[in-house]
Amino acid sequence: MKKTHVKMQGNNLLKESQMDRNKILEKLGVMETGLTNVEVTERLAEFGPNQTVEEKKVSNLRLFIRAFNDPFIYILIMLMVISYLTDDMEATIIMSLMILASGILGFVQTSRAERASYALKNMVKNKVNVIRNDEMIVVAQDEIVPGDLIEVSAGDIIPADARVISATDLLINQSALTGESIPSEKFVEDKRANPELFERENLLFMGTDVLSGHGKAVVLRTGSATFFGSLSIAATERRGDTSFDKGVKSISKLLFYFMVVMVPIVFMINGLMKGEWLEAFLYAVAIAVGLTPEMLPMIVSTNLAKGAINMSSKKVIMKELSAIQNIGAMDILCTDKTGTLTEDKLELVKYIDSAGETSESVLKMAYLNSYFQTGWKNVLDHAVIAKLDENTASGWTKVGEIPFNFDRRRLSVVVENNTETKMITKGAVEEMLTVCTHKEFGGTISTLTELEKNELQEMCAEMNRSGIRVIAVAYKTGKAGESFTKKDEEQMIIAGFLGFRDPVKASTKEAITQLFKNQINVKVLTGDNEIVTKRICEEVGIPANGFLLGGDIEDLSDEELTRELRKYHIFAKLTPMQKSRIIGLLKKAGHTVGFLGDGINDAPALRKADVGISVDTAADITKDASSVILLEKSLTVLNDAVMEGRNVFGNILKYLKMTASSNFGNVFSVLVASAFIPFLPMLSLHLLLQNLLYDFSQLTLPWDKMDRSFLKKPHQWEQKGMLRFILCIGPVSSIFDIATFLIMWFVFSANTVAEQALFHSGWFVVGLLTQTLVVHMIRTEKIPFIQSRAAAPVMIATLIVMALGIVIPFTGFGHSIGFVSLPGSYFPWLILILVGYMATMQLVKTLYIRKFREWI
């Protein structure tokens, strides 16, 4: 045999599973005697150790640096440096405090959320039996190379992706990759036409384990080139930009453009009109600070932290704080089937005789078989045993057993009591009917004809189509003390059939209804077969008008698959990477996508989704790939998380819309005043103080609640909508700012440089109070204080800020920074302006909602 080997990268496992046994050995350059030491050394150098990747923990230093990685913080740092260089120390101190408060809070919240796992590394420390140089040796799993001949037996973990070259009763548990608890039987050849990858009967996969039997296999893939390795790479790579990340960037970019346009205009107008260019420059810097939502990182972090605390009380743990907004913005939920829609445990739902009637006799025989067998009890056996109590076996003694094997596909137990010996056999329907010549019905035994066998097979097929897994029960009787052997498994009496089903959770249907009601489209992505999945979807209220299979998806382009994704809610027999591909295309189509899963096979999809959702009982690699952990695997719990996420997102949007529109209005007012007033309408320090107090009034927004109308549907970050809101709402405050200018100019004669302190004081109070009132005007689409009241912390904070705004001009502190005490006649005008402002804002708000059918 020619000894050559090729680099085994990519995913051609299906093709290699269809090759002849000898051809695959030839392709890998290996003989029956195994690889030589020289070949092992060469291949280890080429392919590397048989290890998968693991996620690296982020250091606290890096997290701290990341906390200041925000465009608005960059702007504040730049402005702080400018203020320092121009000896404006008050502004320097205020901006320093803003920067530190925002960054430190962000670091604290992010470091709490950071999680890391080393589960993958721990999974590859097994020892493996390998044939090398024509002898069996034991090596560490990371020393395995492509072309190695390995031997596996009960209890072994499969160390790599491999092709079976000999097998005896080889039963593999593939649930780590597929999520399905029914074991898979392995053979040397698989002659079926088009089975799915995990259904191939001659392939072994890294990370699965041997339940029974033994076999020999040749290694095809090692390390990150294995299927498990590809999952680990997908599960530990950096999550791409989510809906939250993209939204924050788009809004930040919009506000930055505003600043770039407005600040130079303010600088030029004041410089040209007043001739004091340094003063104009400092004023422009203050305007830049005013336009900067410098508290955005703090507001966002506080909102997310508050949301995380609320969610934890509802059995939802947030690993990544940004996922709180993503879960609220989610408009498509992709979920696996097993354990999410269903209970993730098989339940015996039918025990019928040959006529299809419920039979206690069939149930009792099945119980004796499962109870007395000494081999590996599978989930079907446990479901049977759970149906009756141990007293069922009283009076019976086990005297023999014929173990299960894959040639016969059945298991027999011989039991006896005082009067008879009975051999009870259960197994696959087709194989059982081949050894049965009689049937029992109503206590009468009669000959089983070929026509009747066909009718029984059709009855079982119909149960299969309804999502029920069926096995047959037969028996043979003898005199007390009579022995039975494998040869006696013939001319048996068919007693009846057992039907098993993974039952739907009681809460699932109501939860699905609520998700659709909240405008979240639910799609099922599963590795299970389409018949079972379709039946479950029909039962819980998910549209089941059709389905798409994994095999079909492989032949579709991204454009074709995207069109199909709009049609169907059921996607069955999927591989892990097909799930990931579907989620990627849904995101590309503009959706915010959540994925709920708990198997290792779900890890790539969890990492790809905007919000990956798992449970605390999931595998470590799965939890690492997730951003949300449910302490209870329930869609009802998830519904609660969605509502909290929408509330958090709404409060963040409130801040952005309040700040952006209000600051834009102020700058617009400054432009008007600068063009006509011979002095600065307000000093730079006054603007910074006003901005700081206004920001303080908004720090309590995380404790506010959104109107129910907002919570009814998901909301996305929308740059166009934000721009429209700023341009429509911002100028409303400017109307009343200009009215204030006119009142201060004509009523109070604050129209000279000597009287500018009175002008500054009057506009400072109006500006701060209208800005603070806008918190209540914008936070709800309803009439504030009457139809919708803010939470107590918000009410208290805004009252404190408004009181401070009125008092400061009368204090020594106010006088020290250029304010003067306002006359008593000022306050009736102040009340008139505030009432007029609120009435006008409510009118504009009503017209805006009527026109654009949205508010927050």
Q: How many angstroms does the end-to-end distance come to?
A: 73 Å
**Overall pLDDT metric:** 83
- Biggest sheet, strands in spatial order? 8-23-22-21-9-18-20-19
Give the percentage of residues in beta strands: 15-25%
Given the helix and strand composition, which structural class is it?
alpha/beta
Query: How would the global form be characterised?
Result: elongated
Main beta sheet strand tally, sense and closure: 8 strands, mixed
Radius of gyration: 36 Å
Number of strands: 23
Instruction: Please tally the helical runs, counting DSSP H or I stretches of 4 or more residues.
Output: 32
Q: What portion of residues is helical?
A: 40-55%
Low-confidence stretches: 1-11, 113-125
